[in-house]
Amino acid sequence: MKNDKITLEIKNYILRNRLIEKGDCVLVGLSGGPDSVFLLEVLNGFRKSMDFRLFAVHVHHGIRGEEADRDERFSQELCRERDIPFKVVHVDAPKYAKEKGLSLEEAARILRYEAFEAERKNLEDGYGSKAERKNPEDGSGCGAGRKNLEDGYGSKAERKNLGDGSGCGAVRKNLEDGSGCGAGSCRIAVAHHMDDQAETVLHNLVRGSGIKGLSGMEARRGVIIRPLLSVKREYILRKLQDEGIPYVMDSTNLETQYTRNRIRTSVLPELKEINPEAASHIAKTADILREADDFFRKMASDYVDRFQEITSDSGAADRFQKITPESGDVDQVQETTSDSGDVDRFQETTSDFGDGIREISIPVEELKTYPELVRQYVMMELVRRTGTPLKDWSTVHFRDMDKLIHGKGGAHLDLPYRMSADYRKKHLILRINQEILSIKRRKNNG
Question: Residue 439 CB: number of other CB atoms within 10 A?
């Protein structure tokens, strides 16, 4: 792909946000749609000058029949032509949805990100030592780790026949030599762009989200990176057309029964009729609100630092070993059904304070003098410090806690993840319980 002003801006965006650094490996979630194909092309053009290794993974969800098989074949061939190591993973989204009582879209999203994370760990384990990355003689940024990966992740010959979905072959057999690349040096790149950001904000707005939800998606969150958040979708489509780069389309993206698709195909185009820069303005507002969210989180953290009283229990954190929530805050970014439309699933959602905390409390007389928004941020910070995920929390839980501290003393409230809140002696007390203490969630709290 030829560089132009926009592609150079993408490179600067990557560098400014430190999304990719020298010696990294980057795993692209490749669906075959225009957004992920564009992301792969852009990163493929940058990998030599920025000195990182590029890989791709395609997830076949076991839905959409021949169309999904076509997408797999297309993605495989695209990577083969560009000599990009490729892996296809087959999952059974309908079965998982039935077993877990989830929508098909939710099940597919969960399985997709589990596949991304599993492949990221495979790469990180076998991708070459830190010493090798300091002097990558072949320009790969990985040194000897490359051979380990090509043996298992798909060499040129192996990538010609990935129909069985194995793609990675004996990768685990080659990971016993201790040549891991170190924590945090393998990233998952997803193709969210500026219009996706606008759709996310609008979706969360109509759902009643607060500041966190309206701040949209971050350029980087944990191991997930989004290099295209500054790029408009219309540019992506035009660039692919101008350069004759093929892609495939998921027909379900046009089905308007999905909320995100309705926003994409109806709402956002109408807003662009009012102002062609609507998506850009919404995305910029999200940036401002993200700064506000960071500010209030810092304020809440400082407040809790001043007043917290902690009771420890070395076994308290064991309850959450298998939890992988998607966004780690009350206003969750919901699923999107575009080809790049995935949200973070493997992100840190609890604070480092959480291990072993069984009970945490703060006096509330001063807290009551603050605005409700600040009080809710303080309560969120208290939950984080117990090591409790915020995935299944909503604004109503924190409003209930706020009612609790403004009511009579001695009141009790049950909360998600076997937590409870009590208001006693002018203190708000959050506790991790072995059993649910009361049947009615809002008992004593109206």
Answer: 7
Q: Which of 343, 18, 53 is nearest to 181 (CA)?
A: 53
Q: Is the pLDDT of residue 387 over 90?
A: no
**Contact between 181 and 128 (Cβ < 8 Å):** yes
Judged by average pLDDT, the poorest of 68-72, 184-188, 269-273, 410-414 is 184-188
No. of helices (H) and no. of strands (E), the chain: 15, 11
Q: Is 32 left (phi over 0), alpha (psi -120 to 50) or beta?
A: left
Q: Sorting pLDDT into bands at 50, 70 and 90, what band is 210? A: confident
What is the edge-to-edge ordering of all strands in the sheet holding 427-432? 309-312, 357-363, 427-432, 419-424, 411-415
d(CA 243, CA 372): 53
pLDDT at 313: 58
- Distance of alpha carbon 166 from alpha carbon 230, whole angstroms: 35
pLDDT at 352: 43
Copy the structure tokens of residue 390.
Answer: 């915020």
Q: How far apart are the first and last CA of the chain?
A: 61
Amino acid at 221: R
Contact 337, 375 (CB under 8 A): no
Strand ranges for 286-348 from DSSP E: 309-312
